[in-house]
């Protein structure tokens, strides 16, 4: 705990704080059992209290907007840019003055569809996108998280391509792509609700489920299909799915779908679709974050005359003003103890505490759920990540959605689009992959005008993330309590967690260690770390957090890593020498 951490209690403008935060840090000496942190203060007792206090005080400090950096202006040849109409003021919750009924009165939306909408007023993004979509324009839309983008594309697409065009064939007229299975299922559920008991039918195809039963279902009526890219490609290439009648393609979370992870699948899908469906197909791309790079790639999917609709002002950031966002710098070994304490303290204050806690990897999520699950904590723990079967994932989502309180330990599978009611806080443990991911994860709270808070827990060696240029406009401020001041109150929790760690199986701890090395070695530049300093950090994590064979010293005391796995991480020979490389693991992965 030797690092000097920024001072508490004094408000520092975000830009200055971040300059401080950007200072490259050297991994500090971890506190050990024999070397506990020295100071105990009263403030250590209650982090959530400090978060709340900070959230109320935000209104009294100078506007964070004064630190906003101007975004580049639109290029003269870019598409039609629809800005917020000055005559229609918008409430701070993002609800516009446009009524859904206004569209019915103008004969643009049918009464039968209106009866399925449980709201009187459109959100801002709905007010601005419904009309261009109804008129057939391609649309690229950016609006903050939780502002009703799903209905903004579903409602006009269903009106135009199903109710008005009235196709008789029963094959997909609308295709919606989503980057995650959970989001795909959620969108399809919403589509089903909007279509009600009409003749129009929706279906969903996602990975991790039985493909043959999907094939069978697709033989029935399907006017609107929601899919994840990999499974859709499987249906197109191997199971004869055809899109001869496709009239509308929607990319939800478009920037994620167009980034490296999905780009190849998307290109293949697009190639197959362009050979099959009419050239006049409408394209709708929606997301809360659309960087200039993505906007560039998006042109491939959009007509040159598409409408670019952004309800986020150029000087604004992509998060909500009413979400208090804080970060705390805390050595890794204290992260889980802090979560345990957080769960106890916050439940005492609010029995309906409902938290999503994001981790860097699926293995880190599994480890946290297993270790915290060993403690007697007042909040039920749910767990979701890619190492769970799809039926376990669906069950966890459903149970957490229905629960009035609880904590969902999650990897990024629920980072985007997932709409779970009543989330009071989003906690992010460890550096998110990029600022966009931070924004989308945070967006799981404070949806549809509700309030919420966000807490980012970083190790000191991850603090460079806070200096990322794309976070410049995001008003995340340091928690009122420093990590150093907090650690004494976490000691009892760490003792309990140490015991819990020792009772976990080798596989859970070992794979968390491997995953940590894999995740951070792919992000060295972002942290300003060398491979060998990262290896020291990860090895320290094995000892201080995972309690890996503490009685054994040296290389043999480290969790084993498959030589093959280390090979994929492009580690130097020097780095590999710091690891315990093996040809075979003592358990099956
Ligand atoms: N007009 C409206 N008035 C009030 N609430 C609405 C309205 N339209 C949608 N909602 C509700 O707002 C919540 C968020 O909607 P939705 O999931 O579509 O947001 P989103 O913008 O797609 O979020 P994300 O960026 O996280 O994907 C949902 O619970 C939805 O039912």
UniProtKB/TrEMBL annotation:
Top-level taxon in the UniProt lineage: Eukaryota
Query: What SUPFAM superfamilies does the database record attribute to this sequence?
Result: P-loop containing nucleoside triphosphate hydrolases
What Enzyme Commission number does this protein have? 3.6.4.13
InterPro entries in alphabetical order: DEAD/DEAH_box_helicase_dom (IPR011545), Helicase_ATP-bd (IPR014001), Helicase_C-like (IPR001650), P-loop_NTPase (IPR027417), RNA-helicase_DEAD-box_CS (IPR000629)
Annotated region described as Disordered, given as residue ranges: 1-41, 55-94
Which catalysed reactions does the entry list for this protein? ATP + H2O = ADP + phosphate + H(+)
User: Could you tell me which PROSITE patterns the record lists for this protein?
Assistant: DEAD_ATP_HELICASE (PS00039), HELICASE_ATP_BIND_1 (PS51192), HELICASE_CTER (PS51194)
GO molecular function terms noted in the UniProt entry: ATP binding; hydrolase activity; RNA binding; RNA helicase activity
Record's compositionally biased regions (Polar residues): 20-35
UniProt keywords, alphabetically? ATP-binding, Helicase, Hydrolase, Nucleotide-binding, RNA-binding
Q: Does the keyword Ion transport apply?
A: no
Coiled-coil positions = none
Helicase ATP-binding domain: from which residue to which, for each copy? 130-308
Q: What class of enzyme is it?
A: hydrolase
Which parts of the sequence belong to the Helicase C-terminal domain?
322-505
Please describe what this protein does: RNA helicase.
Quote the record's domain comment: The Q motif is unique to and characteristic of the DEAD box family of RNA helicases and controls ATP binding and hydrolysis.
**Similarity remark:** Belongs to the DEAD box helicase family.
Q: What is this protein called?
A: ATP-dependent RNA helicase
Source species: Serendipita vermifera MAFF 305830
